[in-house]
Design a protein that fits this description.
By secondary structure, the chain is mostly helical. Helix content is about 55%, strand content about 5%. About 40% of the residues are buried.
């Protein structure tokens, strides 16, 4: 953008976005999906250029692109849901749009990953994984630029009724925070693997019949067996699709294992459970506890963290105590 409207940006930043060229180009060419505003130097005010859905002429299309290039084109933050809808479809745009606040970038990434997770869980096939992978790489790129940005996501954990996609995302966010807190020397590829593994730790649940997942009464033996098998089913999915790296296998196969051997599917104990399996177990259980499930009501995140730290016979206190300390000091 060639014109510096810093004063305008300061004045309007709470009410308007200065639209980026890449975002504008993602809109329908002749019918913008939201109102567009132009900044007037002489009065230092914004004036309406066109209204949502208005048909533009070729001359007007050229003009709005010129205005955008000059940094003079804005959209209202009140239309953020429409604006975000376009970015969600092309998530890498968040990395080039300098006009979005970091909190807004986090919101867009959460929306995009939720959509991609739902798509992949409905159809766990390679093409759906490729779409998810692309957006996960945007997520990890955003975090790799500043690892403290993970706090933006921790503040946005989904604490509504349980859904597989939201649970998976909560687990990934929590697990990545624990990863950053405990892995001081890591490469970008390590972060990529951790994020993918945490997001897909429960992919085997997509193979469990929906009537079992929605059942409010106690499960019978056969239904319980189906739940226990989800770890094995998840392992089959990732092996079939060709991304069964070590962190992925640990996340899927060990997130229900417990240090005292009371977990499943293999009743592993102590050091037989890998470090990433232990981390995922804490993140998974924490994420489950903070949402309403058929068999248990949600509890506040701080209470969930306390509960996990106290349960040191089953959960690794290295990770549970970090989570508890964070909530005890209002870090998020």
């Amino acid at each position: 953008m060639t014109t510096d409207h810093s004063a305008a940006s300061e004045s309007f930043r709470e009410a308007y976005y200065q639209i980026a060229k890449s975002i504008l180009e993602s809109f329908p060419k002749y019918r913008p999906p939201l109102d567009l505003f132009v900044f007037k130097d002489e009065s230092a005010t914004l004036e309406t250029f066109c209204r949502k859905g208005q048909r533009l002429s070729n001359e007007q299309v050229d003009e709005i692109h010129s205005l955008c290039a000059a940094g003079s084109l804005f959209v209202a933050r009140a239309d953020h849901s429409v604006y975000f809808k376009h970015i969600v479809k092309q998530l890498d745009l968040v990395l080039v749009d300098e006009n979005l606040k970091q909190s807004e970038v986090a919101e867009v990434i959460i929306q995009a990953l939720t959509i991609r997770l739902e798509e992949f869980m409905d159809q766990p096939v390679r093409p759906m994984f490729e779409k998810l992978y692309k957006d996960v790489m945007v997520f990890t790129e955003f975090l790799s630029q500043d690892k403290f940005r993970i706090k933006l996501f921790m503040r946005r954990l989904i604490t509504e009724e349980y859904a597989l996609s939201s649970h998976s995302l909560n687990t990934a966010i929590t697990g990545i925070w624990l990863f950053f807190e405990t892995r001081k020397d890591f490469k970008r590829r390590d972060l990529d693997k951790a994020a993918l593994a945490l997001l897909l730790h429960d992919i085997g649940m997509s193979k469990v019949p929906s009537f079992i997942l929605s059942k409010k009464e106690p499960l019978n033996r056969d239904e319980r067996a189906k739940i226990i098998e989800h770890a094995l089913q998840g392992g089959k999915v990732v092996h079939k699709l060709g991304f069964a790296f070590d962190e992925m296998v640990q996340a899927i196969m060990q997130h229900h294992e417990r240090l005292d051997g009371s977990g499943y599917p293999n009743k592993l104990k102590g050091d037989d459970i890998g470090w990433f399996g232990r981390l995922t177990a804490v993140a998974d259980s924490f994420s489950a506890m903070i949402t309403d499930r058929n068999y248990a009501k949600a509890i506040p995140p701080a209470e969930a963290a306390v509960s996990l730290q106290k349960d040191d016979k089953r959960y690794d206190s290295k990770y549970a105590s970090l989570l508890n300390a964070a909530y005890a000091t209002n870090l998020f």
